Amino acid sequence: RLMSSVLRLCETESQALKANLGHLLSPEVSSSLMWFLRRFCLSYCLPNESFYAELSVVLTSAFGRDSEGAGWTLNYLLGVVEQTLRQRSGEPGLVEDTVNLLVTMVDSKDRGQLLIKSEGLMELVQLQQSGQLGQMSSPAQRGLMQGLVICAVALPEADGRTQFWSHVLDPPITAFKAMVTSESFPKQYQEEEIKKQVLFHIDNFIGAVQGCLMPTAQCLFSRLVGVLEDSVKLLDIYHNYPAVVETVLELFVECGRRMLCYLTPSASKQLYEQSVLLVGTYAKHNIGRRNVGDDEDQWRDLQLLMELLTSLLSKDFIDLAPSGHGEDVEVVAAADVCLFGLNIIMPLMSRELLRLPTLCSQYFKMVTFIAEIYPSKVCQLPEDLMKNLLASIELGLTSFGPDVGTLSFDFLVVLGSYIHKNCGPEVPVRQGLRPFLKLVLDLILSQQINSDLLQAASASLYTLICCFQTDYQELVQALLNGQTDQTTGQRLAESFTGLTNNVELTADRINRIKFRDNFEKFIANVRGFLLVK
């Protein structure tokens, strides 16, 4: 009865819109309807019966698999979505809730197989391409395209998907290419209407990428790779227009997040190559030309660039691409793109810029991730770049919050472990890491480290002790010699002896855990009687 009442209310709104009485409808009530319908679809409309030990017979009879009610309800809701978007596109909150309903409706193979046969779906495609939805916000525009693209997963055959793409994707791609390659574009690109069209098209492509799933990734990327090439050119043209710059970067970030793990080596290589061109174009227009005093919002493009570099690394530990293609490993690797990007980003990362919270967090996530995946590449960084990188890690240990502190300690662990096992004492990066032993030890003993960071600090201290055993002995001896009270000196010596007791200095995980247990006892003993001045 509840569902029938909701559907009657939907029909009341529909009849009011047909009678040109839409101005009398409440956007809040309509949004609540969409909210309810979305949750109904998630839980009750064609539910995955294998997830439940028991199901209501009434509900499965009305909305379950092979029921007439499920198909009718989905087709009706698709009509509600189309009518709402067509006639109420000026109400942003309602539109976004409506688009979320659509994405939920198609985000199930069983529901998608019914919707793909519906005439209402192609009417929605035509509406999306008609240009009548210009008032829609970027998230809504992306969500609409995402929902349409997800539908392709319900088609079992490649030929069917190709035909579906020809209706959904080919028209916007053709329109986009026609716009950016027209002779008038270089003269008119600064006009407000042209910029709106550019953003509209890129938002559509971002939505298409967000709708990517494993069965459709390769086919989708082959259609969009030309768009990526043109987007790099747009970044060059619109480098003074933050909205366009950020939207282009978002497109690449979504490709890295949503598609890369499904792509074959040759397709991955194409994405890497376009990313290199993108980073180079960004660098050309930003190095030495930005004011550190800008607000954090003014640096969102740099944050997106770091997100892109981080997402490109995902291929090395999550690779779901189909095997057996006989393709060679890509010539351009994710590491090369990331290190190229790091060369661009590092000169910009000053102390003042790191005080911007979001940017700071993303930066430390990126450098720690790169060090974890490619420690050998990090060790080969140019000397100036390495100095800047280690200086930023020192700031991360001493100047920011616990999240950044944890990432900074993790950086020292992964890089220190690699150096201990693979680099001799003469390697410059080993010497660059040497001062961190004293810094970390001082931070621990002076109680400048939050209790939440002690576990990360323990792993970092153990790794640094493994790398610089002689230096560690000298530091401990200096601390003992500095104690004027004999009893305190004796207790301190016993505590340091217990710290490495029964622990092999091999920088492996097992001994790191043993060291952590000793470290907890060490902290409990030492902090009670020692204050490092």
TrEMBL record:
Subcellular location as annotated: Cytoplasm; Nucleus
Origin superkingdom: Eukaryota
Record key words, sorted: Cytoplasm, Nucleus, Protein transport, Transport
Entry protein name: Exportin-4
SUPFAM superfamilies: ARM repeat (SSF48371)
GO molecular function terms noted in the UniProt entry: nuclear export signal receptor activity
GO annotation, cellular component aspect: cytoplasm; nuclear pore
Family: Belongs to the exportin family.
The UniProt record lists the keyword Transport: yes
GO biological process, one term: protein export from nucleus
Main location: cytoplasm
